[in-house]
Amino acid sequence: MKVCFLGGDLDTKAGWGRLAKEIIDGVSKNGIDTEVINLGNNLSMSFLKMLWLALKIRKKLKNCDIIHCFDVFPWGAVGVLANIGLNKKMVINGVGTWSVLPLYQKKNSWLVSWAYKKADKILSISNFTSNEIKKKVKSGNMEVVTLGVDLEKFKLCPPKKETSGRKKIVLSVGALKFRKGYHVSIPAIAEVKKHYPEIKYRIVGDQSGLKYFNELKKLVKENDLEDNVEFLSGLSDQDLRNLYCECDLFLLLSINEGHSFEGFGLVYLEANACGRPAVGTLGCGAEDAIKDGYSGFLVPQNDIKATSEAVLKTLNDSKLASEMEHNSYLWAKANTWEKTAKKYVDVYEKLIK
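The structure assignment produced for this chain is given below.
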């Protein structure tokens, strides 16, 4: 069996890029012959450009049994156009924002809806993403296959030990943009500081969104957190794991902006794999990444009070923290990339029977 994957640059610093690489590597290890076709990352691609790309790749697709597109726009649209007359089995991922937003864009909605309806299988990475697609697309071919974590790359850290005077550390990982909710987590940490004056809050992520970054730095100053908050970027996976090990709790408060949302949240599982519980938000893909009350906590979006209470609940109770560290690792162990890849292979095999 040969699967042709359509996507953009496999930049593993981006969530979708890591998703794509892990799935390609995973199914390859399961004996699937793969070919990756890079269509670029142009999210404003015109219909004529998509049509041109579709014609360009048809020859390669003739040798494939399955065409797997890592998102519906623009790659799924290109794939479906290229598949006219080839009649290969089509798989399209439902990931996040760009799996849903084009359904509400006048110039793209018809093409994206048609692409979804032509897919033999729509594999969403979370129930939230799947339900958002279902609001605009009626299809009986949808299935949810959640993402995974690499337990070798993000190895279990030693348990946190309570020692006199040890500073509590909270960690966030994600690009500095509104959708990641740092404008909520920073004031929440200010509330936590009332109980833990020397708390450290480390925020790791791309800082190219300068307007929002400057707003966050202003917020840090307004909340008297200059000695508590640290912004970091450009770290290796090993450096990142070290930060996971040093922290007591992982925090990322994803916020929906219209049809822009968190499709899953790989970083929650990465923190769990290192044995650190995670706090995320309800009403997005984090609901599948975090097992509420087990591997972490889910709080309402834009809720500073609920967030600070969830953080304090873990920091204040060493027994609970120890239990959640253990549970977090078990949750990560149940959600590895190997298991995700096997589910994809099962889908492929059913399609070509």
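Interim note for the steering committee: The first strand starts at residue 2 and ends at 7. The mean pLDDT is 95.
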